[in-house]
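Objective 1.3, modelling of assemblies. Example input:
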Amino acid sequence: MTEPSRPMRRQDIRRENEKAILLAAEKVFAEAGFGGATMQLIADLAGLPKANLHYYFATKEELYRSVVQNIFEIWLQAANCFDAARGPVDGISAYIDAKMEISRRHPDGSKVWASEVMHGAPVLQDYMESTLREWTDGRVEIIRRWIEEGKMDPVDPRHLLYMLWATTQHYADFGHQIETLNGGKSLSDRQWREAKENIKRVILTGIGAQPA
Amino acid sequence: MTEPSRPMRRQDIRRENEKAILLAAEKVFAEAGFGGATMQLIADLAGLPKANLHYYFATKEELYRSVVQNIFEIWLQAANCFDAARGPVDGISAYIDAKMEISRRHPDGSKVWASEVMHGAPVLQDYMESTLREWTDGRVEIIRRWIEEGKMDPVDPRHLLYMLWATTQHYADFGHQIETLNGGKSLSDRQWREAKENIKRVILTGIGAQPA
DNA sequence: TTGCATCCTGACCGTATGGTCAGCTTTCAG
DNA sequence: CTGAAAGCTGACCATACGGTCAGGATGCAA
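Predicted structure (tokens):
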């Protein structure tokens, strides 16, 4: 527990409340979907009266948009791992690690993102057509170069990327299924490590890039 | 167009209406999620008055349950491909083909299924703990045997299964993203074929099973 | 201390939604 | 032909939800 709240500064109040609301919203949106989520539920989870939510976020749509943009930022950051790399082994390994870490640390955000895309990306369409497309095209180019340089087999770069996204994202979106099949327990540290190792090994071997 | 409906038999009426409702429901649930879907929307899409829906399905929950169970049946059928096979190349190839065909032919159902699991499988929990678990355990055993017989590398069977599920399911659940990155056009026959080939090749090579 | 901007909230409102029902039409067994 | 069962539906209801607002509390600059 923290100190019984010092008289807070205005700035802090705003920051903390927004944070609390966004965190609660992320969880509720993830669990119930946009349509199933209620401002009341989010308010309760954030420990604030409902009317206060509307003070910080005018509408449910606006709140949702903020949540989605937040997770998109995180997603983009992980994407950088790809660039620094000199070859497929480094690059793809790092990317898998990063995305698996997101699935583990931000399962709610990942679910919201998945839900958004599944429902036709009403909020993120613009980002997908600009930022995401550019990022993807860039990475496709990198992979193509790796292939030319003989560092990996000639695999279609796009389908390879989809495979990376799918496999890593799955551990967040279908986490409940995985838990159920794991005897109702969430994956242990060891199991997460094994998951990463397996994925990296199968994919790197699969594309003909020698794992270390 | 079919013949301007002959005076229908009772049985036929029931069957046709249920079918129309389930089809419409699948689409609406997929597009809007359970919470965002409305009986009115489903009714409109099915071309029936709303009250008629409640004549066939007492509640929204019951209708949803039917939709989810339907897709689970399809999912289980595809699962059979695994059994007939003599080795990983046959088995996994067939399974990937079957699951990709589901993603292509039943994208709405796939999305509903994904949504259901993402939200904690409120309806399917029982199935997951019984049918799905048994199927999975059986398949894990088969893969283990393949490994023992030297037909493939020692890969963790569970994580391999997750990878198969994730990769194939992705083409339905994230179809919108894929379309957007494909210039706004849905994948062509050729692209679907390439997708399948890439996935099969990477995974089969990745687990050390010789592709044909 | 004062005045003002920010922060907060209980009570309220219009609407949309899931669901009901009384009474109609259609089918079909006997 | 007849009557009962199945199929159908417009009108209605209670509730829950997103959103508003008037007015109170609080921090803070001057």
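The radius of gyration of chain A is 20 Å.
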